[in-house]
Amino acid sequence: YAIPFVCFILFVFASVELIAEEIENPFGTDANDLPLGMICDNIKLHVGEIFY
């Protein structure tokens, strides 16, 4: 039972590593990054509504 258990643990650690690499830099232009353009446009719109 040791070999399947070790393979499972290896799979878990490799998956966590891949997820960590994907979310390490959230301010880029990849598919899983934050939509900063849309967020900034929304803030600009609401600040404009407050002041004008």
Radius of gyration: 20 Å
Main structural class? mainly alpha
Poorly predicted regions are none
Percent of residues in helices comes to over 70%
Number of strands: 0
Q: N-to-C SSE series? A: HH
Query: Quaternary state, please?
Result: single chain
The proportion of residues in beta strands is under 5%
The mean pLDDT is: 93
- How many structural domains are formed by the residues? 1
Through-space gap between termini? 69 Å
Q: Any key phrases for this structure?
A:
single chain; 2 helices; mainly alpha; 52 residues
Descriptive notes:
The chain is mainly alpha-helical and 52 residues long. The protein has one domain (2-51). It is built from two helices and no strands. It has helices at residues 2-22, 36-51. The model has no long low-confidence stretch (mean pLDDT 93).
